[in-house]
Every structure is written in structure tokens, then in C-alpha cells.
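Open question from group meeting: does this chain pack into something compact, or does most of it stay loose? Before anyone orders reagents, we agreed to write out a predicted structure and look at it together. Recording both the input and the output here so the notebook holds the full record.
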Amino acid sequence: MDPLAPSTPPGVFPPEFAALEPFADWAIPTEKARYAKRIASTMDELDTFYAVAFPALASGTDYLQKVSMDDISEPDKRLLWLFCSLVTVAFPVEAWRQPKVPDTGAASIDAVLEPAV
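C-alpha cells returned:
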């Protein structure tokens, strides 16, 4: 086994989004877990994820708008979750330049309900 090979199995996302495969660990189903990953990540990690995922957002949105949520496949679901993670990291990358909300100290907000996907 090649130690430099990616640890993510192929086909995590739909084939047209294969470039996102190295970021499969951002396909996180809950807002709380996405926020925890953002806080645990460095700005370099957030910047790298954002730089690859953001350009795919428009085509990903077009693609997902054609998917039925009633019988969404696992690859499509993971793609949706990845773009939810992109939303979670966008403001830290674009505005704050840090993973945490500036000047919030120990304050936190927890989602009570999650979308059913």
C-alpha cells in the first residue's frame, strides 16, 4: 500500500465532483460537528478546503437542485454536507481570518434542530 495515497476511498462524492475527494472529511452531517471541525482546524486547512470547494459551489448547487431529497443517494448526501461545511468555513476565511468568531470568549451557540437529510 502506498503511504502517500489518499486515505479516502474513491467515489465518496458523485463522479463529477471527484476533485473534492481529498476533502471528504468535511462531509459532516450535523452543524455542531461541522462547527467543531472548523474550530479544530487551522486557517491553512480552512483556506485549502475553501479554495477547492468554493469554485465547485455553483455547479454543485445546480447538480443538487436536480436531486430528489426523498431518495437522495449517499454520494449526493455527502456532497450536500460538504457544501454545508463550506458555508460554515466561509465567514472565517473571507472575513475573520480565524476559525473562531472574534471577541466571543467562551460563548457558544448550539443548534437544537438539524435539517432532516
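Observations to bring back to the group:
The longest helix spans residues 74-96.
The chain has a mean pLDDT of 88.
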